[in-house]
Amino acid sequence: MASTKLNDLATTFQNLHRPGKPVILANVYDGASASAVAPLESCSAVATASYAVAKAAGVEDDDLTLDQNLAAVRVVAKVVARHGNKPLTADFQDGYGDRLVEAVTSIVEAGVVGINIEDCDKETQRMMPADVAAGRVSLVMKTARDLGVPNFVVNARCDTLVRGGEMDEVIARGEKYLEAGATTVFVWGGSRRGVSRAEVERMTEAFDGRLSVSYKWSHDGLSIKELAEIGVARISVGPRIQMFAMEEVAKRAEELLKQGDV
């Protein structure tokens, strides 16, 4: 795809990040899930989730390689291109160390206009210094600009809370990531801890609405409406759609297989 058209898609995606009227992403992980989500009229953009991509590849999230992630993203990109060519963003974990430029170049060449990038080093399982993580956001943006996509969308993930850190550090890090060129900051509290309403409200105010959150999809979590009213700009679901799908697969398979018990 020509860089001008790709940057137009990036601009479209960037403009979908509206505080108070957030872009909602039903994360996919392979060609089949992309084929189900991308054609939906209500789908304005498509996003992958690395945890789900890893499960589909038969490995754990921490073991997902750059090549495996790229292979999945390329398949998803082809499917998305066949269904209206909506903006596509890819979850690329910590950016794969010193292969960050290679990773960004590869996904842009595949037609991707956004990326999730984390501030916890995948190899050491330690938080990167804030300036290092912000520098990697800057490098992503420079690489995208050099490829003709200056409006590339970075969703900078902060793992401070899930690593036991404090909200003051989250805000300090998030501000650095936004200054470095990120469109939004995604704060991951973990599947157990989560992020409270008060924390979402504080971060939304601190980041001027440029906050990305994970929708818990349960009775005790904030609803889409509540998150929008607080003023977030982006909502995603990570691997939850895959989890729902696999539960249904197991249920149907068991119903079938039990019919052999005669």
From TrEMBL:
SUPFAM superfamilies listed in its UniProt record: Phosphoenolpyruvate/pyruvate domain
Alphabetized GO MF terms: catalytic activity
Gene3D superfamilies named among the record's database cross-references: Phosphoenolpyruvate-binding domains
Protein name: PEP phosphonomutase
Organism field: Exophiala oligosperma
